[in-house]
Design goal:
single chain, alpha+beta, Arc Repressor Mutant, subunit A, OB fold (Dihydrolipoamide Acetyltransferase, E2P), 3 domains, five-stranded antiparallel beta sheet, 8 helices, 35% strand, disordered N terminus
Length: 263
């Protein structure tokens, strides 16, 4: 079903907010300020709230809405891409046609490009990591199938699912899908070389954010193409690894911990 438009001018799927005025305003502020920190300050958002919103949009689009350069809370820059600007234009177009929007969508549709912008945003999931990508390989065996999804120029995610699931989802090379991975399933390792460990997924990235709690820490890696991967691990393990903002690291998780979804 196409996204549902409510009276508050928010795009919704099954009652869940997809894109609203706040997120569009954040994209516009980033375009103007050139910085997520400054955009958050200008709109009265917390830095983490702004970062999470941008990361969520980036992860679920075919191409990122915002490109960033690591620098922590006081450095780096952010730039809204053509994909992000198209999302802004699409939303504002709907805003201008609020009274007629239901008829406009039914009769005209949003067009192929806009459809791609919105389909993956409509999923309801508790997984912290939701990475849009394209299936590049499907290897069948007697019981399980190994599916490889390209999520950025330099990284792929491998999932092991059943033959029945592959058939039900219509997975084949070229098909777009979203890989879902809980942040608690993700382990971390420092350095430029992948560790010798028996996990199928070893995603290389740069540490761009760390938020410490009482026992655990949330760590965000920039994995390229404006996409991010989040791990929740113990503070002690991060301290032992000696990881700091700007350091290179690997996110590690099993193929059996990956769930695939399609639109």
């Amino acid at each position: 079903m196409p996204p549902k438009i409510d009276a508050l001018l928010a795009l919704r799927g099954d009652g869940r907010l997809l894109v609203g005025r706040d997120r569009i305003a954040m994209l516009e502020a980033v375009a103007e300020q050139g910085s997520i920190t400054k955009a958050a300050q200008a709109l009265g958002f917390s830095y983490k709230g702004a970062w999470d919103a941008i990361a969520a949009i980036n992860n679920l689009l075919p191409r990122p809405a915002v490109l960033t350069q690591a620098g922590g809370r006081r450095g780096g820059f952010a730039e809204v891409t053509e994909e992000g600007r198209r999302l802004i234009v699409a939303f504002r177009r709907l805003e201008e046609k609020l009274v007629r929007i239901s008829t406009a969508i039914a009769e005209e549709g949003l067009g192929a490009d806009s459809d791609r912008l919105f389909w993956s945003l409509a999923m309801k999931t508790s997984a912290r990591n939701a990475l849009h990508g394209q299936v590049v390989d499907v290897k069948r065996a007697a019981v399980n199938v190994e599916v490889t999804l390209k999520v950025s120029e330099s990284n792929t995610v491998v999932a092991v699912i059943t033959n029945e699931s592959v058939d039900d989802l219509g997975l084949e090379p070229g098909r777009e899908a979203v890989a879902l991975v809980k942040s608690s399933f993700v382990m971390l390792a420092g350095g430029d070389q992948p560790p010798q460990i028996s996990v199928r997924n070893k995603i290389f990235g740069t540490m761009v954010e760390r938020v410490d709690g009482g026992v655990n820490s949330e760590v965000i890696l920039d994995i390229g193409d404006g996409k991010f991967l989040t791990a929740v691990v113990t503070r002690q393990s991060i301290d032992d690894l000696g990881l700091a903002i700007g350091d290179r690291a690997y996110a590690l998780f099993k193929a059996s911990h990956v769930i695939l979804a399609v639109g």
